[in-house]
Amino acid sequence: MDSIWLGGAEWLAVLRIGLGLWWLESWRHKDKKSWFEQGAGIAWASEIAAAHKWHAVRSGFDTVVRPYPKTMAYVVIYAELALGLGLVAGFLTPVALVCGLLLNLLYLVLMIHDWAEQGQNAMMALISLVALGAMAWQTWSLDDAMGLF
Questions:
Q1: Which 8-state DSSP code applies to residue 67?
Q2: How far is the C-alpha of 50 from the C-alpha of 35, rounded, in Å?
Q3: Is the confidence at residue 139, as pLDDT, over 90?
Q4: Buried b (16+ CB within 10 A) or exposed e, 42-59
Q5: What pLDDT is stored for residue 18 in this prediction?
Q6: What is the 3-state secondary structure (H, E, C) of 2-62?
Q7: String of DSSP letters for 127-149
Q8: Whole-number Å distance between alpha carbons of 78 and 76
Q9: What angle do CA 100, 101, 102 make, to 5 degrees?
């Protein structure tokens, strides 16, 4: 593979780290006080789910998320933080990529009518898929340094 400035594995590491920074930005910009104390994020998602045209989304949200709004707020916030840190550091990278891909797909399905969010979730999912398929943990990662995967 020919490339400019860096080798292919290094460019994949840049892509992986960039995706991690994107997850960290998702975590950073959330108003954690309103998410944790007032349940703002889950309440917003609840409104979206309630109006969703797909029954499976409405019933799935009602079963898994709605009964546990405080717990789910912590799950979402700390999942985004863990994904960001794992991808930037390259620690348990395949796990982070699969979990990030699944989270982006969940966001994509939940917010199917919100075009502003679709581009972000689709691109993050695509990057996760490419980084997973190309094993982007082979360079500049704790996984590589520790001989994991």
A1: T
A2: 19
A3: yes
A4: beebbebbeebeeeebee
A5: 98
A6: CCCCCCHHHHHHHHHHHHHHHHHHHHHHCCHHHHHHHCHHHHHHHHHHHCCCCHHHHHHHH
A7: HHHHHHHTTTTSSSSHHHHHT--
A8: 6
A9: 90
Give the distance from CA 113 to its chain's centroid.
19
Phi, psi of 97 (to 5 degrees): -65, -45
The per-residue pLDDT of the chain, averaged, comes to 94
Tens of pLDDT, residue by residue over 25-70, are 999 999 999 999 999 999 999 999 999 999 999 999 999 999 999 9
**Residues 140, 142: Cα–Cα separation, whole Å:** 7
- Distance CA(31)–CA(38), nearest Å, equals 10
Which amino acid appears at position 116 of this protein?
A
Give the C-alpha separation, 107 to 52, whole Å: 13
The tokens for 11 are 């460019």
The dihedral over CA atoms of 106, 110, 114, 118, expressed in degrees to the nearest 10, equals 20
* Rounded Cα distance, 20 and 99, in Å: 12
pTM assigned to the model = 0.92
